Amino acid sequence: MSWSAADVPDQTGRNIVITGANSGLGYQAAGVLAKKGATVVMACRSVDRGESAADKLREQIIDSDSDLDPDFDVRECDLASLDSVETFAEGLREDYDELHALCNNAGVMAIPRSETEDGFETQFGVNHLGHFALTGHLLETLVGTPGETRVVAHSSGAHERGDIDFDDLHHEDSYGKWEAYGQSKLANLLFAYELGRRLDSAGIEDTVAVGCHPGYAATNLQSRGPEQEGSAVKLYAMKAANAVFGQSAKQGALPLLYATTADDVEGGDYIGPGGFMNMRGEPEKQRSNDRSYDEDLADRLWDVSEDETGVEYDFAALAEAITAS
C-alpha cells in the first residue's frame, strides 16, 4: 500500500488533540493535520516550547501555501501530574463542544528511574497512567461529538518485550529502564483495546480506539535517556544508530496520521510501518503481540489504573447521554 501525508483526508472543521506535539512525531503530525484544515490542540508540558513549535509550523505551512491559515491551540498538559491533566481537560471541555480525535502520543523512553508528581514510576506514569486519566476526562466530549471519533494510542515495537508486573508496578524493588518502557508500551495497547471493547459493550459505536507504532524513527526521544544519565558515549551511540537505522520523524509520523484519519481504520486496529522488520516504510494494518490482546490482563490493568489515577469511566452514563441526545 502506498500512503503518504498527501493522502490524509481533508480535516476542515475537526478538532484534534495531540499530546507531546511540540517535538518529534507529534510535531510532524500536528503540522500535517493543521495543513489539512484541522484545529490542532497541542498539549505540551512546556507552553513556551509549544508556542515556539506552533510558530515554526505555522511559518512552514504558510510558506508552502500563503492561502492557508493553520490553527494551533497550545495548552499546558503535564502528563506527569494528574492535577495538570485534569486542569487541561477542564479547560478543553469549556472551550470545545466537539473533539474528533485524541492522539495519546507523548512519552518518555528508557530513562533513569524517577517518579512523577503523584509518585508513579515516570515511564508508566507518563506513557500510560497520564493518558488513561486524560482519556477518561475527555471521553464524554469525544462520545458526544457527531460522527466517528477516535482515541489513538501511540505504542512501540517495544511492547513485544513488555509485561505488566502487578507485584512491582512502579519498579520500586527492581528497575530496568527498558523493562519499564516495554511495560508502559504494552499498557498503551492493553488500554486501547480494552477501551474499544468497553465502548462496544455499551453500544457506543461511533467512538473507536486504535493503536499504532512508528517503527524506528529518529527523534529526540532516543537521546533523553543518555542525557539524563550524563553519558556522552551512550548519547553518541544513540545518535549514530538513529543516523544509520532510523527513518525520519516525518516518515515515522505516518502510522499516527493513518490511525487518526484514514477512512478504513476500525476499532482495535494496530497500524505500523510495513517495511524492513516493521521498522520503516509506509503504514499498514498489523497485529501486535498476543499478550496485548489478553482480556483478563487488560481488565486487571484497567481496575488498577482507575485506582491509581482516581479516574473512573462510566460507560452506562455515556450510553444514556447518547440516547437522550
What is the strand and helix layout of this fold?
Elements: E1 15-19, H1 24-35, E2 39-44, H2 47-64, E3 71-76, H3 82-95, E4 101-104, H4 122-144, E5 149-154, H5 177-201, E6 207-212, H6 221-229, H7 232-245, H8 249-252, H9 254-261, E7 270-273, E8 283-286, H10 295-309, H11 315-324
Parallel strand pairs: 1-2, 1-4, 2-3, 4-5, 5-6, 6-7
Antiparallel strand pairs: 7-8
Helix pairs in contact: 1-2, 3-4, 4-5, 4-10, 5-10, 6-7
Write a concise synopsis of the structure shown.
With 325 residues, the protein is of the alpha/beta class. It has helices at 24-35, 47-64, 82-95, 122-144, 177-201, 221-229, 232-245, 249-252, 254-261, 295-309, 315-324; strands at residues 15-19, 39-44, 71-76, 101-104, 149-154, 207-212, 270-273, 283-286. It is built from 11 helices and 8 strands.
Overview of this protein structure:
There is one protein chain. This protein has helices at 24-35, 47-64, 82-95, 122-144, 177-201, 221-229, 232-245, 249-252, 254-261, 295-309, 315-324; strands at residues 15-19, 39-44, 71-76, 101-104, 149-154, 207-212, 270-273, 283-286. 47% of the residues lie in helices and 13% in strands. An 8-stranded mixed sheet has the order 3-2-1-4-5-6-7-8, sandwiched between helices. The chain is built from 11 helices and 8 strands. With 325 residues, the chain is of the alpha/beta class.
